[in-house]
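Support request from a user on the community tier.

User writes: "When I paste my structure tokens into the form, the page sometimes reloads and wipes my input. The last time it worked, I copied everything first. Here is what I submitted, just in case something in the input itself triggers the reload:"
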């Protein structure tokens, strides 16, 4: 939860959260989006994703969406955005829905988008001064001063859990959405270009 210095532009209960979009260490300033919404963070991000797919985002909505780690770490969403630069949006939507259906994922459909339009969202910007960090000169009085204050004793090594690596490459969403085909069991699968 965010310490509220602002007020949302709508009445009623709300959630608030922040997303950092710029940090300038030289000037000591951190710039953030402060989001007020009638839904939780994941619902707002889902709504903005669906709006990107079915409609057009405002400049501040787009900037907020691409500043979130949830978006940047999602290969499908980044692939869609990249493919949008070269591919007709209607064809892109059709390919996206076909792949989601094929993979058994939740569909990014128009009905869900329409249902989420009732959500109230207010995106504001905030700048915060960062605390000054004392500069380290690198000077050490004596070699024995290094490590002072550290606890001495036995070091316990934690066991590392076994990691299983999948024997297949992850799906390249950009390629699938922009080209309209993918490989499955060494076979080429073409997606039908349907307007959505």
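"...and here is what came back when it finally went through:"
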């Amino acid at each position: 939860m965010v310490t509220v210095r602002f007020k949302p532009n709508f009445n009623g209960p709300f959630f608030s959260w922040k997303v950092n979009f710029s940090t300038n260490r030289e000037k000591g300033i951190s710039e953030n989006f402060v989001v007020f919404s009638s839904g939780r963070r994941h619902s707002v991000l889902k709504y903005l994703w669906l709006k990107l797919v079915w409609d057009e985002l405002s400049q501040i909505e787009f900037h907020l969406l691409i500043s979130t780690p949830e978006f940047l770490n999602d290969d499908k969403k980044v692939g869609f955005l990249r493919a949008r630069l070269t591919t007709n949006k209607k064809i892109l939507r059709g390919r996206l829905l076909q792949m989601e259906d094929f993979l058994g994922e939740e569909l990014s459909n128009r009905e869900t988008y329409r249902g989420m339009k009732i959500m109230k969202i207010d995106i504001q910007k905030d700048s915060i001064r960062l605390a000054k960090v004392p500069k380290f000169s690198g000077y050490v009085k004596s070699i024995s001063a290094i490590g002072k204050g550290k606890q001495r004793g036995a070091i316990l090594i934690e066991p590392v859990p076994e990691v299983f690596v999948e024997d297949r490459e992850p799906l390249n969403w950009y390629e699938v959405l922009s080209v309209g085909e993918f490989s499955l069991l060494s076979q080429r699968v073409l997606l039908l270009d349907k307007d959505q």
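Agent notes: The reload is a front-end session timeout and is unrelated to the input. The chain has a mean pLDDT of 83. The two ends are 38 Å apart (CA to CA). Escalated to web team.
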